[in-house]
Amino acid sequence: MRITRSGRLAACTATALATGMLLASAASATGLPKPVTPTPRVTADDRVPGHLPTGKPKAATQQKQRLAAGANAAAGSAWNLFDVNGDGADDILYRGLSGTSYLKVSGPSEADTTFDVSKTDSAEDFKDVIPVGDLDHNGRPELLRLTVTGRLSLTEAYSTSGTSGAMWSGGGWNIYNKVFGAGDLTGDGNADLLARTNDGQLYLYPGTGKAGYDVPFGNRVLLGAGWGAFTQLIGGADYNGDGKTDVVATTAAGVMYFYKGTGSAAAPFGDSVRTGTGWNDFNQIVPLNDSNGQGLVLARTVSGQSRLYAADANGVLGNPQDMGKGWRSIGLFAGQGGIPAHGKSMLWGRTAGGTLFGYGAYGDGTFAPRKQISDDAGWPVADYGITLVSSLTTTSTPDMLWRDGGDMYDGEHPLGGGWDIYNSFAGVGDLTGDGYGDLLARDKSNVLWLYPGKGGNGQGFANRVKLGAGWGIYNKLIGAGDVTGDGRADLLARGTDGALWAYPGTGNTAAPFGDRVKIGSSGWNGFGKLTAAGDINGDGRTDLVGVDSAGVAYVYSATGEKGLNTFKGRTTLGGGWNTYAELL
After folding, report:
1. Interval 234-260: pLDDT, tens
2. pLDDT by residue (tens digit) across 123-140?
3. Residue 283: how many CB atoms within 10 A of its CB?
4. What is the rounded distance in angstroms from the CA atom of residue 272 to the CA atom of residue 260?
5. Which residues contact 130 (CB under 8 A, 6 or more apart)?
6. Which residues contact 176 (CB under 8 A, 6 or more apart)?
7. Which residues, listed in sequence order, are joined to residue 511 by a DSSP beta bridge?
8. Distance between CA atoms of 298 and 302, rounded to whole angstroms?
9. Cα 107 vs. chain centroid, distance in angstroms?
10. HSE (CB half, 13 Å, CA atoms) of 535?
């Protein structure tokens, strides 16, 4: 049965309330939709167990010496990255899957407190939050906030409850896939910043000793290429105990390398030293400094187990301290080593009868119990096409695009007619490099088109760009973020022969994909339903869910490696998934 427009409005409202989508509720008296506030995806309280080592409050004379040091500090001095309570040890700032941020301070307390990272747009989810230390030596640490559109802004942690408003800011930072605090690398007593491009070049931004509205960093300096080999990068801590800040990096294969800091602006690192293996068991690593100036690494497994590692004089990490289980609910660590994800981390299913159900991701490769997110039979498969696309906005929740004949809607916002010329859609994320999610559409002549996003919430798309013909060799086009591990959104395509291919994103509107790479040799046609759920295991890379003919669902997690090693061996979600006509 075809639902009325009022029925569609009600269904959109139910969807928004259940999954946190920025859709619309029932129309107002003027016919304009009313916005719906997103709700938590999985849980309302994401606080994690465990406590950090107790710090030692700095003596008044020590504090005065430190604040006055400035450019006269010892070469390579390793100050804290994020000591909010002033006890000389770093604290941890993290954002839960619900979107709430919390502060875990050093000391015996496990009572993490909410922490307000100020926003200029209340609906925005920062792509990354980066601790950089006390830039202006006033005793309070600064944070950098990075938006999906590439704007980096400075704020100060004025208390254990939150930050000040935005101060200095600058655009153009979306050329980097990783920006992280480095401590004092150059030996002038000021905290510096490191940034890596998508193609693996590493740049140093030397600190100026200023904060507030003053420019905190000087002109960038190229340190070298080849840094794209690392899936995780952290700095800003002294790991070998020589008083200079170092950098630690891990590869997709789990090999850890140590870069010893020199305290020299001309050559801030020594040669890399291999210090361990098995680090691909951890989906995130985070740098910390204790009150003695010792660098520590917090590491979290996919299952949510957290451990704290200290290093020896050679930078080798060992003898972990158990920090407890239950850390899977953290969606973003401030200063984390991995590239942060944005755009989608959930799964939808539509039954043959047209009822929608949503599954929020737990962060460990599994999903919370399903929730009905529409009216019964509210979205008949024969009447309405639905595409759940990676976020078109600055919020990290997907958008529901749906079609009624040739008319397309973003939630309740009409996007115009003529869309019935296409037989396949995919919203993989940002392909143009502006931070907003885009849409791919294949027409009935098998030509692929790109519709650059304009920010979502009904703003629609810019003029389409022709990408080429011959796309009829694929029976499935999917994606929801970064599969290859370089921070750019990628397109996956399943061939009619059952092979799976990746088209790596370039960030270039005119040519958004590089040469295709085979990532699955055969057998993918065995999945009647196959979709990209976004990052569901906390490593920043998108994962796949496929359902076989028996109704058993499997998760394929991306590894950060290339080619046929792109995905790990599959894990099962159990049976009964044939209740759905499609997964979104």
Report:
1. 999 999 999 899 999 999 999 999 999
2. 889 999 999 999 999 999
3. 27
4. 7
5. 143, 144, 145, 146, 179, 180, 181, 334, 335
6. 195, 196, 197, 198, 203
7. none
8. 13
9. 29
10. 33
